[in-house]
Amino acid sequence: DTAVSQTPKYLVTQMGNDKSIKCEQNLGHDTMYWYKQDSKKFLKIMFSYNNKELIINETVPNRFSPKSPDKAHLNLHINSLELGDSAVYFCASSQIYRDGNSPLHFGNGTRLTVT
Amino acid sequence: AQSVTQPDIHITVSEGASLELRCNYSYGATPYLFWYVQSPGQGLQLLLKYFSGDTLVQGIKGFEAEFKRSQSSFNLRKPSVHWSDAAEYLCAVLTTSGTYKYIFGTGTRLKVLA
Q1: B4-62 tens-digit pLDDT
Q2: Per-residue pLDDT tens digits for B87-98
Q3: What share of chain A is helix, strand, coil (3-state, %, to 5)?
Q4: Which of B34, B56, B57 is nearest to B44 (CA)?
Q5: Which residues of B fall within a CB distance of 8 Å from A108?
Q6: Cα angle A86-A87-A92, degrees, rounded to a multiple of 5
């Protein structure tokens, strides 16, 4: 069973469109994340949810809206897509332990191409 | 501010040679450190982690890393590289002051020559 799964794997769309990426984890983790990886492979956090509550929002444009219906799901909706949104988006989850033994588990990524 | 630096953007080694990838972090409290590997077109796989105890940690695929607090470093090593090790390697620190946040370095692209 895939631990963190996100769909779709590829998304090609035109500027101005609205699209969503879905993410689900079956690890029982209480925290989920969205990361954006640019063409230079830099991985930057966008959002983090803990038990459905938004805890990190890293200066992401309002066009990006995460939604967490339950702690196993974190979806990302993007309005009015722009060329600069083209990137690979990774969903991840973790269970935060106070001793730090809390690695991130990643999905396989969604490659978004805006034309 | 917390940050992770991977000074080498690209590294090329011959198959069978030893490897060391550098990672330096900036974080005032006890760092929790991770190395991930990303193969082309794939997600990120955890290689190893340090959160306490022995400063030399063993990971999967024959990798190890050593935490050196005095140098704020967590370098990744492998004694003999295989062609299948060609990938992107990312170092990360988990910060726990306030909101828990994983901060990644910019990555090192490893190329392996046959």
Answers
A1: 999 999 999 999 999 999 999 998 787 899 999 998 877 899 999 998 888 999 999 99
A2: 999 999 998 877
A3: 5, 55, 45
A4: B34
A5: 42-43
A6: 140
Which residue of chain B has the CA closest to A58? B101
Asked if residue A102 lies in contact with residue A3, where contact means CB atoms within 8 angstroms, the answer is: no
User: Taking CA atoms, what residue in A is nearest to B3?
Assistant: A44
Neighbouring-strand partners of residue A10: A111
In angstroms, rounded to a whole number, what is the distance separating the alpha carbons of residues B45 and B63?
13
Helix (H, G, I), strand (E, B) or coil at A84: helix
Is the CB of A104 inside 8 Å of chain B's CB atoms?
Answer: yes
Six-digit token string for A33: 């994340």
CA dist B111 to A12, B25, B83, Å?
30, 24, 8
Contacts of B84 (CB under 8 A, 6+ apart): none
Phi, psi of A108 (to 5 degrees): -85, 0
